[in-house]
TrEMBL record:
Organism: Caldinitratiruptor microaerophilus
Residue ranges annotated for the Pyruvate ferredoxin oxidoreductase beta subunit C-terminal domain, each copy included: 195-258
UniProt cross-references to CDD domains, sorted A to Z: TPP_OGFOR
Keyword Magnesium appears in the UniProt entry: yes
Protein name: 2-oxoacid:ferredoxin oxidoreductase subunit beta
UniProt entry tagged with the keyword Iron: yes
Gene3D superfamilies, A to Z: 3.40.50.970
Top-rank lineage group of the source organism: Bacteria
Length: 283
């Protein structure tokens, strides 16, 4: 509740992104982090609207540029909880190079990808995670390219926390997101977030039938990188829970300078004129 704004989301009724936003709110609230210490950096696509609707600071940035922007925020003020958010088109298409570099750098941010296997905002084109065979506006006879495999890509790129959730299970997703935010390092949480309007294949019902989970599996060890990759392969990626986690120093902890205090701190109670003056300094 605390993290909802008065702006009504323009997502289609039933869109999975509602579940992601609710789960994120619950996760942040469960950790007791106040809204003014949270920044949501989002990309372009239906998912990108989350930065406008979540009751924290928000930056709606350029297509595919979520992770460089979120990295800059974290480096400039390490006391902030930085949530990067976007969709599969934004993050695994134009932005996929940034995923590799953010993962290997181990920047302490949580990257939530609302993966609906389609471009929703532009009304239904094949995305980097579309399943082969799915008919879309750009592939009316069915997509035929091998999809991107985000969990495996993040693990082999050096991410220290890799998980997957489903927006049809808000409680489970909230628990995963809370762990991801608590994790000191780069965390990818890929979320199956159905596009109810343009993807009639990967529906809530389809996921409920198809998904497996590592949660509650006593034989599953998330610190075992090869086991994580094997489970992802064996389930064709249709697995939820915390697949992998490990620890190593974060990017920002190894940078010289800037660690003690934020790059800039604005005094409380600034007027509009004060802000105009500050902005003028950057012109
Ligand atoms: Fe959600 Fe799809 Fe509607 Fe976009 S088009 S708001 S992804 S249901």
């Amino acid at each position: 509740e605390e993290f909802k704004t008065s702006v009504k989301p323009t997502w289609c009724p039933g869109c999975g992104d509602f579940g992601v936003m609710n789960a994120l709110g619950r996760a942040v609230a469960s950790l007791g982090i106040p809204g003014h210490e949270v920044v949501v950096v989002s990309g372009i696509g239906c998912s990108g609207k989350i930065s406008q609707h979540f009751g924290a600071y928000g930056i709606h940035t350029l297509h595919g540029r979520v992770l460089p922007t979120a990295t800059a925020v974290k480096v400039a003020n390490r006391s902030l909880t930085v949530i990067a958010a976007g969709g599969d088109g934004d993050g695994y298409g134009i932005g996929v190079g940034h995923l590799v570099h953010a993962a290997r750098r181990n920047v302490d941010i949580t990257y939530v990808v609302m993966d609906n296997h389609i471009y929703g905002l532009t009304t239904g084109q094949t995305s980097p995670t579309s399943d082969p065979g799915m008919a879309t506006k750009t592939h009316p006879r069915g997509a035929f390219e091998e999809p991107v495999h985000p969990l495996a890509l993040a693990i082999v790129s050096g991410a220290t926390f890799v998980a997957q959730g489903f927006s049809g299970d808000v409680n489970g997703l909230a628990r995963i997101l809370a762990e991801a935010i608590r994790h000191p390092g780069f965390a990818l949480v890929n979320v199956f977030s159905p596009c109810v309007t343009f993807n009639k294949v990967n529906t809530y019902a389809w996921y409920r039938e198809s998904l497996t989970s590592v949660d509650g599996d006593p034989d599953y060890d998330p610190s075992d990188r090869m086991a994580a990759l094997s489970r992802i392969e064996a389930t064709r990626g249709l697995v939820t829970g915390i697949l992998y986690r490990s620890r190593r120093p974060t990017f920002e902890s190894q940078l010289p300078g800037l660690g003690e205090k934020p790059l800039a701190v604005l005094p409380a109670g600034l007027s509009g004129e004060d802000l105009e003056d500050l902005l003028a300094e950057f012109e």
